[in-house]
Each structure stands twice: as structure tokens, then as C-alpha cells.
Amino acid sequence: PQGTEEAKTFVHAFLKRSMPKMNDETIQDMLTRKAVVLEHYPKKKTKQKRKKTKGFTAKQRRELRLFEIEPEQQRYAIFLPLHELWKQYIRDLCHGLKPDAQPHVIQGKLLKADLHGAIVTVTKSKCPSYVGITGIILQEFKHIFKIITKEDKLKVVPKLNNVFSLELDGFISYIYGSKFLLRASERSAKKFKLKGTIDL
């Protein structure tokens, strides 16, 4: 290790080489009055903009027929396991549908739940031909339900002006489609208000 004098000599020589225009007195004055800060300017890193991965547009999805169910797949029996999974999902969501459970609490959870796999029935409608349609919900869109019936027929039922009922472990819930015009992903974040009377 260097001694004090050797260190002073080294620093003085270093400053002399680094700042040749300064005389010895100025250098000595800098050393006695303040610390010398050797500045380092790092190169600025250019941030690379992340490219956002763009999904398909609605038109592209229609052209690719992503949401269409093939005719050979339109069979009620194929989707019964999906219904069993849905029942277990709702039981877990509601911590078991016990007889002493409060109906409004269960109803609130069902309004935000995913309904793919639920068996629903159209109980009221402004169009009489929809009343009585029963089946498993295969797809839910903002304005419609796609339902497969026991007769292996795929029905497209609008939510507007229709009332749907679903039953699970003796608990029957009614869905007013006109107040349900949301996508499944949007419903999970929506706050539904309790209303005394609801029209079709």
C-alpha cells in the first residue's frame, strides 16, 4: 500500500495529466479546499418499444369461423360433462348451496358467474316461440345465448325481452336478459343493483 506522500504525488501527477492547462497552484488549491469528483457520463440506453401483440378483429374472427360449432359437434350428450363441471364450479363459488344460505347472496354470485355449461330454460318471452327452450349454454355473447337442446338442436336465443331460469340443488334463479346485456368478462366487474320490479 502507498504511503500518504506517495498518494499525494500520484494524485497531483494524475490531475496534471488530466488538466494540463491548470497550473500547480490551482491544482493544490483544489486539493486543499474540496474533494475532486471524477464524473462519469454513461451512455443513455435507448428503450426498445415493445410491440403490442394484436389479436384478431371481429371481422377476422367471423372469417375464420372461430366461434362456430361444427354440426357434428352439436350433440347434447357431448356437453353433459361440461354441465357437471359447471355445477361443481357453482358449488365451490357459493361454498355449497346449503338450505340456510341467503338467496340474495347466491343470486349476486350467480349474476357474476360464468354460465358456460349451465342448463337454462326460457320461462318468459315477448316472442312465444322462445318459451320452453331448455338446454346447456355453449356460448354467451353480449346479446345472445347459444343453447344446445336435448334434441341436439343449437338454438340462438336473444337476451333482450327474455327471462331465463336455472336450477341447481333445488335453488332456482331467474335471469332477466334485458338487464344482462353484457359479455361474461364484463359481468364479473359489474355491480348489479337490486330492483323491486323488473320488466321484460
From TrEMBL:
It is found in: Nucleus, Nucleolus. One of its GO terms (biological process) is rRNA processing. The keyword tRNA processing applies. Keywords: Nucleus, Phosphoprotein, tRNA processing. One of its GO terms (cellular component) is nucleolus. One of its GO terms (molecular function) is ribonuclease P RNA binding. Component of ribonuclease P, a ribonucleoprotein complex that generates mature tRNA molecules by cleaving their 5'-ends. Component of nuclear RNase P and RNase MRP ribonucleoproteins. RNase P consists of a catalytic RNA moiety and 10 different protein chains; POP1, POP4, POP5, POP7, RPP14, RPP21, RPP25, RPP30, RPP38 and RPP40. Within the RNase P complex, POP1, POP7 and RPP25 form the 'finger' subcomplex, POP5, RPP14, RPP40 and homodimeric RPP30 form the 'palm' subcomplex, and RPP21, POP4 and RPP38 form the 'wrist' subcomplex. All subunits of the RNase P complex interact with the catalytic RNA. Several subunits of RNase P are also part of the RNase MRP complex. Belongs to the eukaryotic/archaeal RNase P protein component 1 family. PANTHER family: RIBONUCLEASE P PROTEIN SUBUNIT P29 (PTHR13348:SF0), RIBONUCLEASE P SUBUNIT P29 (PTHR13348). This is Ribonuclease P protein subunit p29. It comes from Anthoscopus minutus (Southern penduline-tit). The gene is Pop4.
